[in-house]
Fold these 2 entries.
Entry 1:
Amino acid sequence: MEAVLELLSSHPGLWAFALLLLCGFGLPPWSEEIVLLGTGYFVATGDLGFLAAMGWCYAGILVGDSLIWWMGRFAGERVYQWPLLRKKFRPARRMRFKKIFFAHGTKAVFAARFLPGVRLMAYFLAGNLGMPLWKFVFLDSIGALLTVPISVYLGRLFAENLDYAMTLIHRFEIPLAILGAFAGWWLFRRWRAGQVERLASIRRERAERGSKGTN
């Protein structure tokens, strides 16, 4: 945690963005949650506003996760031989998540946002197995909107004891995942219903114009 705070101290927003982008690839020796809590610490000190912290963190997460999706879609299986990623894409793990993806699809990708150990694999395979970018970004955005504000706020609230804040995150990770899954399902259903209704309205308008034209 001390190393993260030292990095963030010069330019909290920019460093939060950069570190969270790298966290998506599993590169730094710390987790995404630690960076979010550290950003909250600088909200508490007044070096960064809460909304600004949210924006930087949210952008870093989405850009990093989208790059992983891009690797899956366009780089494909070549990444299995890249030195930095070879260990993270072991055949057994790939096959296991492929089975989960084909069985659950949308739900599996969404749930990965709350499971640090499988995010990289899940997002890569989402692109590799053909999940549309708009759908991936939509799911990832909902998950980030549920995790980023809570983690940054906890970092601000427990600025003097960030280890306790990390304990709280781990303790409520599963309930948060369940709440997030329900919220994501509800928002997605509302969005789909709106799209269906809009399409039906367009068809009705075209039908009415056609009937008027024949008259």
Entry 2:
Amino acid sequence: MQVTFEKVDSPEKEEAIIRAQSNTDDIKAAMELLEGGKRKIPLLKDGETVLMAVTSFYYIESVDKRTYVYTRDDCFETKLRLYELEETLGTYFLRISKSMIVNLKKIKGVKSDLSGRMEATMLNDEKIVISRSYVKEIKRRLDL
């Protein structure tokens, strides 16, 4: 793929155009990177609504029909369902169980479990379990 850079004289003139035969995962990832994590989602914490960039999400979990978003040091609630978030989060997010979605960029390491599951260690040293039915896809996405 050919890449071209052209300097412009003002931020208003900045743009990126990608010409490709199909919209692959790599193209989607490049688009996300170029957009700079502009996508924000409303989250609830202590009765206050906070708009937070999805790039700061570590993982999202559904418990008792409520959806929680975990960041490095905090936990927020969202009114969105997992399937709604899954559609909007982007290519760096992957479902790892029926009740959890993880940000692949926030995984420090993974290890296999005897039962066929995997355990992922996040950048904040929190450990989460990857269900057996999602192991194949996470291995593919992490090039394992």
